[in-house]
């Protein structure tokens, strides 16, 4: 998120110009491919170079909020990108062919959509719980066929799932495997991304990092709304490596326009963000456990 990187740099530039020094070392990390799995961050989080930094706490991006509160994320949903391949009997499009790939796709697709519908109803019944506490399912890619009048022998579909850390991952995966078995023979699953983000940080007075962050926000009149992050960030890799990570973007009174046309941030919101980070960064960097 470009605005978050800019906030960090502007706040640190201000603090440096004021001659401020801190007990702890600050590290800024700029990586690529966050939208397609964050492989660089995953590799770095597992490296000796990262361990040698002795990182115990970090900040990452959050999400805008149309309301007055600012959203802060203490964990995030796991990403599953599931490719299901269906093989069946090919033939001419004018026939009633048995055991086709399309019929098997239909069965599995309906099962995924039933799960989607039930989770959507659960979310709409209590939107205050946040999207991060529900499982979302969407079919994002479908491939197959060679020409309009030929029933394909192979069809594949990719499903994007985002799963909260409270979910039973093993049971959910078994359920999906069962759907594929029920659809018929020659149905296979490939996990393109198989996330397992169960780590969350404590938001109690027992966690000094949370106390420092929360107190700094309170000092600049920031009202927080705590949630599980609904999508995926690099935070999941560093939480798994042992660091407490908070996702935070001081973007209140801002519509949520992720990847939309005309995504924008009001000038006043951006400038206030510099003030907020100028309070948060010293509070964290001077924390002595």
From TrEMBL:
It is found in: Cytoplasm. One of its GO terms (biological process) is amino acid metabolic process. Keywords: Cytoplasm, Hydrolase, Metal-binding, Zinc. Zn(2+) 2 binds at residues 35, 259. One of its GO terms (molecular function) is metal ion binding. Binds 2 Zn(2+) ions per subunit. Its EC number is 3.5.1.14. Its main location: cytoplasm. It comes from the Eukaryota. This is N-acyl-aliphatic-L-amino acid amidohydrolase. It comes from Arion vulgaris. The gene is ORF156942.
